[in-house]
Give the backbone structure.
Amino acid sequence: MNYKYINNMLSEMDKDLSSKGMTRRDAMKLAGISGASFMMGGSNLSAMEKDEKPIAKSGVDAKIVIVGGGLAGMSTAARLTLNIKNPDITVIEPNKQSVSYQPGQTLVAAGIWDADEIIYNRDDFVPEGTKIIEDKVIDFDPMNNQVTTAKGQVIDYDYLVVATGLQLDFERLEGLEHAGRAYSIGDNSRLHKAMGDDSGICSIYTAEGATKTWEQMQKYIEKAKNAKDGKKVQFLFTHPGTPIKCGGAPKKIMYLANARLKEAGARENAELIFYPNGGAMFGIPEYHDAILEQFKRENFKWHYRTNLIGVEIENKIAIFDSQWQEKGPYDPVMKDFEVISKHEKIRVPYDFLHITPDAVAPREVAESDIGSAAGWVPVNKETLQHIKFKNVFALGDIAQVPMGKTGGSVRKQYKVVVDNLISQMEGKPLTSKYGGYTVCPLITDIGTVMLAEFDWSVKPTPSFPLDPLVERWVHWLMKVYALKPMTMYGMLSGKA
Amino acid sequence: MQVKFEFAIYDEALDKFELDEKIYSYELNEEETETYSILKSVDLHLYNFFQESESFKSWIKDEVYPNMIGGKIAICDINEISFRRYYFFKVTSADVHYEYFKKLFKIHHEIDWQGREEVGKEILEQLKIKRQELIIELKKDIVENEA
């Protein structure tokens, strides 16, 4: 770790805090009390205390099936157990292990954490009385309230919660057709075989891939360190055209590679280039502007509207679809010029290529009656109830909710699902609403994080009395030390 | 005060608008003039004001389209404040219209990473609903029998 840099940061932070009448101790105290909770969903101390009060349990009696035993599914099971007198809950999940804290994959990929720090055994967090079926759902039949598993078991339900997560579509890329689709965890051997062990291609989006990213990063940092011919080592980072888990992650790994290059004294021999499919750094203008300034400061390059469509692994060439717009003919009705979209394939040599894959709904969801045309489960974005089947709810990555694919969103969503599911069972109106809150702790260096919090208002919604556009050490400490226990012992217990 | 209006005629069968290229002048009374000056910077509020004004609707039925009772129209321009994009938006429409609708329909964040065609499709979906709200139906006046 670059201690000199952190010391500088500390001194800068002290100056910043003192201008607001706070000491570092005050800030840390605030962070320690409410920080971990607000980062996972903007709650505060009083809300946490409220959670501690005895809960009036509902006497509803029905069979609830939860498909997916990741963070969203297990937190929902835990909270239902706390809120129903005699819960009948079944979770269907094929994997014995889960990634408790997926944002930690960027930290693993930069050598800050070890892989085993983000993985937990599913069975250690099963709420009392909850049944686990170790199988994968391959068919949803909402007309008959049934799901079918890969082993052929047909399971009836009264109420269904869909929390399958999403799939990573690597096979869409030319040159990686054999990679198949991957989940964050599970058997991703096809993917890693297709990428090769030492090809310079990597992706933090699987747990194993995060470890491999760190191996590859070290190799190319070493290459930059020893570069003598003036030729810069090319580090490429992509961002696709689909919604993805944590929109900031493709940039986080870029910032961390930059930090490690600086630490090795090799930054001058490396070129870091970002290839986003879109035309902005972030959907919220305030954060876009801040990130752009950080890119300029760190001497990054970027090319908007470039979507990775293939790789030539042997030649180390990345193929992008580059899109741009040209002025078209005058439209006399609209009294303005039309815009013509154009595109072409471009070939870019790389040494190190970090791929952020397209995120898609698993086929068994997308092709069933519970999936929408886009594949995701269409729910009312506030109540999280299926728009067609009133006894079906969805949350987490699979729910068709804008800006909802982060752990911070799940922390808000699972409470809404539990409240509304119980109301639905009791025949009451659904009054609990998800407001679109999400959070992206954007790591900008080893030791600093810009905490991007926002909701459907498309404005920064900071939970902390500090400028949200400033990169801070205190947020780094929360990211690295506070969030994981918050997730594992707070959310998975159904309380936080 | 005189205000210039342009209209589009809605063809229900084809779900399509056709621009009426003529410009019509409407005389505002004192109260309407005051409201107009307050609302002229907030385009949709201004639209709603005229859409709900009985005297304005009577003027359209009596003087602008006297032979179109039962038909449907929409306001395209009010003194050069334009609503045309609501009826004639295409995926190839200029960026200014595109950005306007992205803001109006709160299409943001992850959607920003998608292509123009995809966002355009979403705008058109939402416009289908919004257009229906803007349409003014030229209903036949019902004369109550006082006998």
Confidence is low (pLDDT under 50) at residues 32-51 of chain A. Residues 12 and 216 of chain A are 33 Å apart (CA to CA). Residues 49-94+135-166+361-436 of chain A form a domain with the FAD/NAD(P)-binding domain fold (CATH 3.50.50.60).
